[in-house]
Amino acid sequence: MAELDGKVALVTGAAGAIGREIVRALRASGARVALVDMDAAGLKRLTADLGPGDDLAEFVVDLADDAAATALPARVRDHFGSLDALVNNAGTRQVKPMVDIDPQEWRHTLDIDLTAPFLLSRAAIPIMAAQGRGKIVNIASMAGLAAFRDRAAYSCAKSALIMLTKVTAVEHGADGIRANAIAPGVVETAMTKEFFESEDLTASIVANSPMRTWAQPSDIADPVVYLAGPRSDFINGVVIPVDGGWTAGYVGAELSPKPKAEKRLEE
Ligand SMILES: NC(=O)c1ccc[n+]([C@@H]2O[C@H](COP(=O)([O-])OP(=O)(O)OC[C@H]3O[C@@H](n4cnc5c(N)ncnc54)[C@H](O)[C@@H]3O)[C@@H](O)[C@H]2O)c1
Hints:
- The chain has 267 residues and is α/β, with parallel strands linked by helices.
- It has a single domain (8-266), classed as NAD(P)-binding Rossmann-like Domain (Rossmann fold, 3-Layer(aba) Sandwich).
- It has helices spanning 17-28, 40-50, 66-80, 103-131, 152-172, 193-197, 199-208, 217-228, 260-266, and strands spanning 8-12, 32-37, 56-60, 85-88, 134-139, 177-184, 239-242.
- The protein has a 7-stranded parallel beta sheet with strand order 3-2-1-4-5-6-7, sandwiched between helices.
- It is globular.
- Nicotinamide-adenine-dinucleotide (NAD) binds at residues 13, 15-19, 37-39, 42, 61-64, 89-92, 112, 139, 141, 184, 186-187, 189-192.
- Nicotinamide-adenine-dinucleotide is lined by residues 13, 15-19, 37-39, 42, 61-64, 89-92, 112, 139, 141, 184, 186-187, 189-192.
């Protein structure tokens, strides 16, 4: 029997690069999956790519709409008969200096990256509590663990999403609900396209990553399956960096001569 056989997972941002791989991995583990995104064409492409079936259902929703976000968990429960996992993956960010962010942009980033996960969790929790079980997986970011320039709204939203994860764990552990977060490092997706179009930015990623490389979307998907499934039942309220060790230290900061192995690599 597969790990998530018969379970129902709701995945936001399903049409995005990481979302698609999360959906693929959850389905491969036996889950039925509600695909949520505002990109209707992207959801259609995903369903066609995965192969349509009764175990997939598309929900086109703009998560900036509070009422639509709030209604979603019950719609998914009504469609599939239960709601076992909520994966808050949809996200948005702009890259600009803090002093140039206007209040509307600030609020929009917080709406999608923080308020929507709050509204979805708030609506999913009573459904999960009535079932006596449920998993919430919030996709945060290493930018929610450490500050990076030009991402004020995004970093603040992701940092608060990590705290929302802990609050959910503390308030609802006794209801059978587990809430955990994943903090990806640099992942090659549409969101990070500009990193790979610039030699300087690519070099900076390599210099700051202990693994000297970046992640692919599938690297994020397997930890999500683990946190959504039964093997992680006693893990609650943690944030797992999936960043190749980036936030474990300051590998780009030289305080001693380069290790011999790296010197050899450069020669
Ligand atoms: N790519 C990275 O390097 C990276 C690093 C750390 C964290 N993350 C996080 O991972 C998650 C997925 O990122 P990605 O790289 O796959 O991005 P992506 O841009 O490829 O996908 C994001 C998806 O969210 C959807 N979305 C955005 N706003 C929405 C809204 N208002 N309503 C409904 N759907 C909406 C988009 O349509 C898109 O399909 C995000 O939360 C992001 O912050 C990404």
